[in-house]
Amino acid sequence: MYLVLVMGALVTNTGSATGCGNSWPLCNGQVFPVPNFHTMVEYGHRLVTSVATLLVLWLAIAAWRGGRPRRDRAFAVMAVGFLFLESILGAAAVMWPEPPAVLATHFGVSLLSYSGVLLLAFSMAADPVAAAAVAPASPGERFLARVSWAVLAYTFVLIYSGAYVRHTGSFCAGWPLCAGGLVPPPGSAAFPQFLHRLGAGVLLLLLLYQWRAAARLRSGRPDLAAGAGWALAFGVLQALSGAVVVFSGASALTAMIHAAVIPLLFGAELYVALRSALRYSTSPAGSSRIPTKNGPNSAYSALAGSKRIS
Ligand code: HEM
Predict the structure, then answer these.
(1) Residue-level pLDDT at 192
(2) Where does residue 250 fall: left (phi above 0), alpha (psi -120 to 50 degrees), or beta otherwise?
(3) pLDDT at 307
(4) Hey, whose CA ends up nearest to atom 25 of ligand 1?
(5) In the chain, N or C terminus with fewer CB closer than 10 Å?
C-alpha cells in the first residue's frame, strides 16, 4: 500500500497521468504498450495497484474467515472499500478531465485504504498489550486518545491542502517567507501555498503537544510515548522536505520525497491513535473483568471491552 501511494505521487510529479492515453483498463489500447518513460510510470502504477488490490482482498477474506473481532473486520472493509473507490476515481480521471479540487481527493482516498490496512495490522499486534491492560485507563490516557484522533483528522485536512497546491500549481518562492513577504494577498496564486505552510506549522505544534502528553505516560505506556516521538520526528522531516521542495523550485525528486514521508507520518499518528483508543476501550466502566466465552482475562476479552468477539 505504501508503494501504491508513492507510485501515485510519481505519476503526478512526473506528469505521467496520461502515459496510457485515455484508455483504461488497457494502456494506449494495448495490454503491453510500447514503452516510453511516461507510459512505463503509469503502467507501473496500474500494475502495483492491481497487485495491492489482490493482497488487500486476500487480507480482508483472511480477517473475515479467521474470526477476527468486528473492529478488525471493519478495518478490512475500510481497506477494500477505499481501494475500490480510488480505482474508480483513478479510471474516471484518465477518461474525463477533473478539476484540481477533485484530483486532490485521490491522495486522501488512497491514504484511507492504506490506513485500513495499517489499523488492522496495529490492532492485531496490540492483542497482548490489551490483554495486559487490566487497570482502568488513566485520565492521561483518555486525554491522549482524544488529542491523537484530533491530530489525525487535522493532518488529513492538511494533506488535502498539499494535494490541492500540487494540482493547482500554487507556489511561492523562498522559505520561511512567501515570495519575499509574510502574507500573500488572499485570492492570489500563492495564497493556497501560504495556507499550506501555515497549516504545517500548526501541525508541528500539535505533534509537539501530543508528544508531551504521551511522554508523561512513558512509565506505564512506553508504546504511546515512542509512537508520538516517531510522529513528531516524521512531522519535522515532512516540514523540512517541504522547504527543500521550495528551494529546489518544486523539482520532481524533492516533491516525491515530500510525498513519500506522508504515509510514515500518518502511520505513526494512526499507531498512537489506535493504541490509546484500544486501552481506552478495554475498561469502559472502570473494570476489565469482562466475562466472555474466552474467560475474563483472555486477550480477546480484554481487547473487546464489552463488545462481542466471534
Ligand atoms: C508538515 C506537514 C506537511 C504535510 C502533511 C504536507 C503535505 C503535502 C502533500 C500531501 C502534498 C502533495 C504531494 C503530491 O501530491 O505529490 C504537498 C505538496 C507540497 N508541499 Fe507540503 N506538506 C507539509 C509541509 C510543507 C511545508 C512546510 C512546505 C513549505 C515550506 C510545503 C510545501 C509544499 C509544496 C511546494 C508542495 C507542492 C509540490 C509540487 O508542486 O510538486 N509542505 N504537501
Answers:
(1) 94
(2) left
(3) 37
(4) 242
(5) C
Nearest CA-CA partner of 172 in 153, 154, 194: 194
Phi-psi region of 29 (alpha: psi -120 to 50; beta: other; left: phi over 0): left
C-alpha cell at position 274 = 489506535
**Measured CA angle at 229 (ends 225, 234), to 5 deg:** 150
Secondary structure of 60-103 in HEC code, one letter for each residue: HHHHHHCCCCHHHHHHHHHHHHHHHHHHHHHHHHHHCCCCHHHH
Q: b/e for 96-122, b at 16 or more Cβ within 10 A?
A: eebeeeebbbbbebbbbbbbbbbbbbb
Helix (H, G, I), strand (E, B) or coil at 8: helix
Ligand 1: list residues with CB < 6 Å.
Answer: 9, 12-13, 107, 158-159, 162-163, 165-166, 171, 175, 196-197, 200, 203, 235, 238-239, 242-243, 245-246, 250, 255, 258-259, 262
Q: Which pLDDT score, from 0 to 100, does residue 310 have? A: 26
CA distances from 92 to 18, 88, 97, 166 (A): 12, 6, 8, 19
CA 278 – ligand 1 centroid, Å: 31
Q: How many whole angstroms separate alpha carbon 225 and alpha carbon 218? A: 6
Average pLDDT by consecutive 10-residue portion of the chain (310 residues)? 91 86 82 89 92 94 88 94 90 83 91 96 72 65 94 98 92 87 90 96 98 94 95 98 93 94 98 81 40 37 36
- Residues 221 and 214: beta-carbon distance below 8 Å: yes
Q: What is the pLDDT of residue 200?
A: 97
Inter-residue contact 134 to 220 (CB < 8 Å): no
In whole angstroms, what is the distance from residue 239 CA to residue 197 CA? 8
pLDDT of residue 128: 52
